[in-house]
């Protein structure tokens, strides 16, 4: 039943034609938006990371510039070349001033150390002490000095480590910038200067490079030591991760990589400071949930509007399907009724569209079937009635024909030709009227029959009767219903001939045009009063057969009824009084039968 219903098929078709493209559009839009937002987020983070890199390089270069400023102090350089001049008050004072200047040049610098290479001597100054000259307190072969010496830029940034002043209650985290001072133009090391500074400025710069809620940020030294991390992980935790090893092993200065490790699943964006600035790696890790957060929001909005649109589409689909199929279902219901024999179907118009046109044509078809059935039924009924009447009045036609023929022959033998002619005409009239095998006859035969009837009446009334025919020769072969002229002429003798004041006249005219045949039967009788004429018209238009009022004008009614049965409303029979007196009966017949 579901597959046979055009409504169900239409609903499924419209649903598929709307939901599939709509759903595909939402999915494609989501993935396209997600990838676009992901690329945009990666690009923005890369730019942000680059800006952080510039800021860190600027800060480190600022600190490194303080160490390089020592080369601009000849007194300090001379002192480093010959530390024995310690007793030189001016040289010592110059060293004090230089160290103090560097110490207070940047607020995060906590301590400045200068380890003289030629002698195991250390000059140190902190914010809580004056410049101190010490002996045998340093070792030029320490690892960070060696890394500074081996660095192309003669600088090394020691990762975060702790220092503790005697006055401090607990150690402090510091980063130390080591620089080897060279006796230019030779490669001899004069000293190592170390700036110990707190990581506060680096922390401040780093906090501007990530979102604390959903992003991770790391600064890693070239050796893999953590300089800064935004998470609560310990240094030991980070040492067990593989992504740091991957960053260390990559040969690229910057880039992005998709990474999945542990609970993290997202994208890593990295950038490296220049070697002159320590070569630190800046790494930002952004999970997919953060990257696609905007895409999820856009997708939710799209899905919300998509669901609303989908509901509207479904409602529109149901409306269109019901609107189209409801009239068809009504037509099917009435077709079932017609199949069961009920032709009395009536329903409102379906509109002006194709469905409405189909319904109107269906109603026209049912009306025409009804009309044809009624016509056929009435025609059969009329024929049966005529046959019955003929049978009732027909005792033995052949006996009558033979008897009339015998009478005519006897009349000839006894010198009575007039009797013979009259009997012969009566025989022809009876033979014509009693022949039930033909319903339609050529106009010529109908004229001859009428003429025989008039000649018989002429025998009766002699000179008191005159009749004439005006015939279109081309119309004589036109088929007309049998016995439509003689009953009209007969009415003249019943109702108009006796009341005449002069010789009775009957004229029959037949003419035709392209579409109709006109037959006019006129007389010079007394005519019919207008009230009687109206009664006759109403009587003719009354379709009911067999009523008592039909006792009069039976012949006229018979002719009118058979014309309607054969031609419908395309044939006319009209009566009117002539101005000169008498009655004119007009018959108009279409030259083409209905449906032919």
Care to give the gist of this entry?
The chain is α+β, with helices and mostly antiparallel strands. The chain contains 16 helices and 18 strands. Helix 12 packs across helix 13.
Q: Could you please describe the fold and organization of this structure?
A:
This protein has 596 residues and is of the alpha+beta class. The protein contains 16 helices and 18 strands. A hairpin with a 2-residue loop joins strand 9 and strand 10 (264-272). Helix 1 runs antiparallel to helix 9. The longest helix is centred in the N-terminal third of the chain and has 63 residues, at 6-68. Mean pLDDT is 82; it is low at 545-550.
Indicate the low-confidence ranges by residue numbers.
545-550
- The number of distinct β-strands equals 18
**Mean pLDDT level:** 82
How does the helix and strand content classify structurally? alpha+beta
Q: What is the topology?
A:
Blueprint (H helix, E strand, L loop, with lengths): L5 H63 L5 H8 L7 H15 L5 E8 L4 E6 L2 E7 L7 H8 L4 E9 L8 E11 L6 E9 L2 H8 L8 E5 L5 E4 L5 H5 L2 H8 L4 E8 L2 E9 L8 E7 H4 L1 H47 L14 H40 L3 H17 L3 H18 L5 E3 H19 L3 E7 L7 E3 L4 H11 L7 E9 L3 E8 L6 H12 L12 H14 L4 E6 L5 E8 L6
Helix pairs in contact: 1-5, 1-9, 2-3, 9-10, 11-12, 12-13
């Amino acid at each position: 039943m579901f597959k046979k219903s055009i409504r169900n098929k239409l609903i499924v078709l419209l649903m598929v034609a709307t939901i599939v493209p709509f759903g595909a559009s939402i999915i494609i839009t989501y993935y396209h938006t997600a990838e676009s937002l992901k690329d945009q987020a990666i690009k923005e983070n890369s730019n942000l990371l680059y800006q952080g890199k510039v800021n860190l390089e600027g800060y480190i270069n600022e600190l490194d510039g303080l160490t390089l400023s020592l080369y601009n102090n000849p007194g300090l350089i001379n002192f480093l070349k010959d530390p024995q001049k310690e007793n030189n008050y001016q040289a010592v004072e110059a060293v004090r001033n230089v160290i103090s200047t560097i110490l207070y040049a940047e607020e995060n610098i906590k301590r400045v150390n200068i380890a003289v290479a030629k002698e195991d001597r250390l000059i140190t100054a902190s914010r809580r002490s004056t410049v101190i000259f010490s002996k045998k307190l340093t070792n030029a072969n320490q690892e960070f000095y060696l890394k500074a010496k081996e660095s192309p830029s003669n600088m090394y940034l020691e990762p975060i480590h702790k220092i503790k002043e005697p006055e401090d209650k607990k150690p402090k985290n510091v980063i130390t910038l080591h620089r080897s001072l060279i006796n230019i133009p030779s490669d001899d090391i004069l000293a190592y200067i170390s700036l110990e500074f707190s990581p506060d400025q680096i922390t401040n710069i780093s906090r501007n490079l990530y979102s604390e809620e959903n992003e991770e940020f790391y600064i890693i030294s070239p050796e893999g030591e953590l300089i800064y991390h935004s998470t609560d992980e310990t240094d030991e935790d980070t040492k067990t991760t593989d992504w740091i090893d991957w960053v260390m092993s990559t040969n690229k200065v910057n880039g992005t990589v998709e990474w999945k490790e542990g609970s993290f699943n997202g994208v890593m964006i990295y950038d490296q400071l220049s070697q002159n600035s320590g070569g630190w790696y800046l790494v930002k890790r952004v999970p997919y949930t953060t990257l696609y957060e905007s895409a999820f929001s856009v997708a939710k909005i799209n899905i919300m509007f998509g669901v609303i649109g989908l509901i509207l589409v479904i409602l529109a689909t149901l409306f269109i399907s019901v609107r189209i199929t409801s009239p068809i279902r009504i037509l099917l219901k009435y077709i079932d009724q017609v199949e069961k024999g009920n032709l009395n179907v009536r329903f409102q118009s379906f509109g002006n569209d194709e469905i409405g046109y189909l319904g109107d044509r269906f109603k026209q078809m049912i009306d025409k079937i009804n009309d044809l059935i009624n016509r056929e039924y009435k025609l059969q009924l009329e024929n049966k009635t005529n046959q019955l009447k003929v049978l009732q009045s027909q005792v033995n036609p052949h006996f009558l024909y033979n008897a009339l023929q015998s009478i005519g022959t006897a009349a000839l033998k006894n010198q009575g030709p007039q009797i013979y002619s009259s009997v012969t005409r009566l025989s022809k009239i009876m033979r014509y009227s009693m022949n039930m095998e033909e319903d339609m006859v050529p106009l010529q035969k109908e004229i001859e029959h009428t003429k025989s009837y008039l000649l018989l009446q002429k025998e009766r009334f002699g000179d008191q009767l005159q009749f004439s025919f005006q015939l279109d020769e081309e119309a004589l072969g036109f088929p007309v219903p049998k016995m439509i002229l003689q009953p009209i002429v007969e009415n003249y003798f019943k109702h108009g001939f006796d009341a005449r004041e002069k010789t009775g006249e009957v004229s029959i005219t037949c003419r035709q045009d392209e579409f109709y045949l006109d037959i006019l039967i006129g007389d010079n009788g007394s005519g019919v009063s207008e009230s009687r004429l109206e009664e006759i018209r109403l009587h003719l238009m009354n379709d009911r057969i067999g009523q008592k009022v039909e006792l009069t004008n039976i012949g006229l009614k018979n002719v009118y009824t058979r014309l309607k049965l054969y031609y419908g409303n395309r044939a006319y029979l009209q009566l009117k009084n002539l101005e000169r007196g008498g009655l004119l009966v007009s018959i108009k017949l279409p030259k083409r039968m209905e449906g032919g």
